[in-house]
Amino acid sequence: xxxxxxxxxxxxxxxxAILAPPPVRADExxxxxxxxxGARAAAESGTTAFKAGRFGEAVDMFLRAEELFHAPxxxxxxxxxxVGLGKLVLAKEAYLxxxxxxxxxxxxxxxxxxxxxxxxxxxxxxPRIPTLQVSTTPEAKDVVVTIDEKxxxxxxxxxxxxxxPGTHVLRATADGMAAPEKSVTLKEGEKSEVVLELSPxxxxxxxxxxxxxxxxxxxxxxxxxxxxxxxLLGLGVAGLGVGGAFGVLSLMKRSEADxxxxxxxxxxxxxxxxxxxxxxxxxxxxxxxxxxxxxxxGALTITGVILFVTAKRSPETSxxxxxxxxxxxxxxxxxxxxx
Length: 339
What we know:
Helices cover about 50% and strands about 15% of the residues. By secondary structure, it is α+β, with helices and mostly antiparallel strands. The protein is flat. The model is unreliable at about 1-30, about 215-220 and about 315-320 (pLDDT under 50). This is PEGA domain-containing protein. It comes from Polyangium spumosum.
């Protein structure tokens, strides 16, 4: 895949582009400083993976960056990563998303460059995408066709549809009928038509998706004492205080990191870039502690209130030997009890 100077320039402007706000949708809130910093880090990792030919990793990183902060530059590199994986259909949809986006007059230059590049690359990609038309014969009820084990919508039967190049496995069943499995290999730009011939088969029926049973929910009753509820409530309030304090410290560090990055500018490197990364890491650490404190404090507070009220309403149902043990971990906090 060849990428011109304009493409490399767009990739190099990732960090500066996400600091300037894109056109704000009426129903979309402005991104936080933490989200911008996270998107910047994910985009940088995605660019590194893309240049190294690790396109699967690049897709993951650009999807994360886009989830945190929308930028046409993210979507452009996502489309290019899909092309690297041979997923041309997904790449085309990503390009179309950029082309159809309306940029405001104050949009960053990197966003406008990304849109112009997307229009050119989309025009080059479209003729490369193969099409496959699948139909069945004879007419039958409850026809289900799958391509690579994924159901084909009934509305697309007999319709030439875009598909990625490569080998695809086709199957079809109907009420009391089935067709032999068939494989088809498509090259870029190739157009193919496949007819699956149904024939009577004993006990044949439509292909049904397999649903995995969900985890069983443990049953139980909650009836702890007032002392346990009061203790958890106190711990919860303390946790909320700690989480809030570290959250404020994280925002302050994030603001300091953004200021340092703006001072450094596009192409920032050396000690200044290291300083920006250090500030981002410090902000992330404080933010993590804040989230843990808030999550654990909230869980403990709510649990304490519930236990306290429950004990008040039904003291006669509380069994002997009840115990409640709070816990706090990297992913949050909560309580473990025996009632």
